[in-house]
Amino acid sequence: MSFVYDEDRRVRLGMPEAVFCEGKDIAALNLIIAELGEAAAHPVLFTRLAPERHALLDPLLAARLNYDPASRTGVLHGTMPAQPGTVAVVTAGTSDLVVAREAVQTLAFAGHGSALVADVGVAGVHRLFERLDLIRSHDVVIVFAGWDAALASVVGGLVAQPVIAVPTSVGYGVATGGRTALHSMLASCGQGVTVTNIDNGFGAACGAIRILNGINRRP
């Protein structure tokens, strides 16, 4: 097996190469890190690299990654230079943070700043109102919520910025696995709220990056 770096991806998409680690065996991950580590110093983001799997990597290869266990991400060859545009990353609860942190790390990898606004769900909606000025000060908003995921609709009705909603697999009973949150977000009456797949913090961040890239191309 050989892994060839997609050198044209940054030009095509405005984002460098990313490697999804979940489901890959350790030997394959070791080979990918080794091959990309020996290639030109192109930045690479490794996602869904759980701490227990990171611990199984060849220590010399693992040491090449700037690894963040909280977001389950690793970066090889550093990040992109700072880019204009920032994102508010908003979570309904602290249980959503592992997915939200994946988005924060993805944004940082691509050179974009972000502000993490945690635990402002509808069960304590006064906390959201206290943070609205901060949220509105950013160019894009990503909302993470499980259970009934009502926060996405509330935020969608309060801010003018593009809102990307991420259902998380947080909750029990009918909320187990995130499908209730997904359906709630898809049925949102918040105009223009865009929805990603369940627990897809990386995808939401990439959506925000595309929006920012589009804004930055304007004359």
Describe the structure.
The protein has 219 residues and is an alpha/beta fold. The chain has two domains: 68 residues; 131 residues, Rossmann fold (3-Layer(aba) Sandwich). 37% of the residues lie in helices and 18% in strands. The strands form two sheets. Strands 6-5-7-8-9 form a five-stranded parallel β-sheet, with helices on both faces. Strands 1-2-4-3 form a four-stranded mixed β-sheet, sandwiched between helices. Strand 1, helix 2 and strand 2 form a beta-alpha-beta unit. The longest helix is centred in the C-terminal third of the chain and has 16 residues. 41% of the residues are buried.
Summary tags:
alpha/beta; 219 residues; four-stranded mixed sheet; 2 domains; Rossmann fold; 9 helices
Radius of gyration, CA atoms, in whole angstroms: 18 Å
Q: What is the average per-residue confidence, as pLDDT, rounded to a whole number?
A: 93
**Which sheet architecture does the biggest sheet show?**
5 strands, parallel
Separation, N- and C-terminal Cα atoms: 44 Å
Strand content: 15-25%
Structural class: alpha/beta
Number of domains: 2
Shape annotation: globular
CATH topology of the largest domain: Rossmann fold
Task: State the CATH class of the largest domain.
Answer: Alpha Beta
